[in-house]
Amino acid sequence: MAAAWIAIGLLVVLVIVGFYNTRRRRRVLEANLPAGIPRGARRTILREQRVQRRAAQAKFNAEHPYMLGGASDGGGI
């Protein structure tokens, strides 16, 4: 019973930390934007940043397929 309470408590703590980290990261990204920028322009800039991050991640995954747990050429060990 005690192990179940510890597991539930750990899960709650992880959810709180994840929520805090997401909020903190969003504030840091928005803090780097110029002051007085309209909402539409802010959304456009943030969308472009997400596209760039995804492109960089896709490039990394293509260059380093072994980091994903397997070769992309279909060959096995």
Describe this structure in words.
The chain has helices at residues 2-31, 39-63. Helices cover 71% and strands 0% of the residues. The chain is built from two helices and no strands. The model has no long low-confidence stretch (mean pLDDT 80). It is an all-alpha fold. The chain folds into two domains: 1-32; 38-65.
Which characteristics define this entry?
flat, 77 residues, single chain, mainly alpha
Topology, element by element:
Blueprint (H helix, E strand, L loop, with lengths): L1 H30 L7 H25 L14
User: Main β-sheet: number of strands, strand sense, barrel status?
Assistant: none
User: Terminal Cα separation, in Å?
Assistant: 43 Å
- How many separate structural domains? 2
Query: Based on helices, strands and strand pairing, what is the structural class?
Result: mainly alpha
Specify the number of helices. 2
